[in-house]
Design goal:
The protein is α+β, with helices and mostly antiparallel strands and about 280 residues long. The protein has helices at about 1-10, 15-30, 65-70, 110-140, 145-150, 205, 210-230; strands at about 45-50, 85-95, 95-105, 155-165, 170-180, 180-195, 250-255, 260, 275-280. The longest helix has about 30 residues, at about 110-140.
Length: about 280
């Protein structure tokens, strides 16, 4: 029933014909990129595969395809929040690896600052990946590997994002960088933004003036509960385990608006525990 109501609403939207044509053309162009293996060349080759219109925001006014619009409702901040977030996708290859970038672009209050930070983080991760792969290749060749064998690894570098929650009041998403050959090269950057003005939501905003003590207490309680029942305990504080939260502590907002504190793999626990998460109660 919800989807039927949404379909009726979408049919009432009147998009400009030019926008419809640009949208459909972009969709058809996207269908043409099917086999990335065929794109390997010795010179760097960049493909633009922007959803909606090249080098522009994807504005969802696609009453020409209600089914497509419903599908787009599952994308981060697209649907009810389409007026502030866009999607940029870019794919390019070198002799040694393929890079896929899919990141949000915020449009609204303070969008220049947020987008500039996203772009900076993407560029820094691209540069880091280049250095990591170059060092890996040098070691590989030095130990008897060949250029072709290295190329056949088809290393994938990916920068993308995941929406953690979105409401009429906020959007929370994480920007991630990964290299498929190196599990230790993961980077994540968390964004928690108010939709009213684009400002960043902090742990202090959510927990109050005594936020550090409250967060630390809840995290330590959850760590102790885990350690009592698990064969893989968290590290002790004296051995590099959890110490305290601070202004740089990563977190996202869950669907209920609770902050979920996240630590990098190996930061406070053995790698087998992955990236530990702690849901904090804002009413405590």
């Amino acid at each position: 029933m919800k989807h039927l109501d949404e379909l009726r609403r979408l049919r009432e939207i009147h998009a400009p014909e030019a926008l419809k044509l640009r949208t459909l053309e972009a969709i058809e162009q996207g269908k043409e990129v099917t086999d990335m293996k065929k794109l390997k060349q010795k010179t760097r080759k960049r493909l633009a595969a922007v959803l909606g219109a090249v080098a522009a925001c994807f504005i969802v006014a696609v009453n020409a395809s209600p089914a497509l619009a419903l599908g787009l409702g599952n994308l981060p901040a697209i649907g009810a929040l389409v007026h502030i977030v866009c999607l940029r996708q870019d794919i390019y290859q070198t002799d040694d690896h393929t890079v896929t970038i899919e990141v949000p672009q915020v449009k609204g209050e303070q969008d220049e600052e947020v987008n500039a930070l996203i772009e900076q983080q993407v560029k820094e991760y691209e540069a880091k990946a280049e250095e990591d792969i170059a060092a890996y290749k040098q070691a590989f060749l030095a130990t008897g590997g060949t250029e072709q064998q290295f190329a056949d690894k088809d290393i994938q570098v990916k920068v993308d994002y995941t929406v953690k929650s979105e409401t009429k009041d906020w959007v929370s998403f994480v920007l991630s960088g990964t290299q498929d050959w190196n599990a230790g090269a993961v980077e994540r950057h968390y964004y928690n933004l108010r939709l009213s003005d684009g400002s960043t939501i902090t742990l202090k905003d959510l927990l109050g003036e005594d936020w550090i003590a409250l967060a630390n207490e809840q995290i330590r309680t959850q760590i102790d509960a885990h350690n009592r029942t698990s064969d893989i305990p968290y590290l002790a504080a004296d051995d590099g385990g959890f110490q305290t939260v601070d202004e740089n502590t990563n977190f996202y907002l869950d669907a209920d608006g609770n902050p979920v504190v996240v630590f990098d793999r190996y930061a406070i626990a053995p790698g087998a525990l992955g990236e530990p998460e702690f849901v904090l109660n804002t009413n405590k």
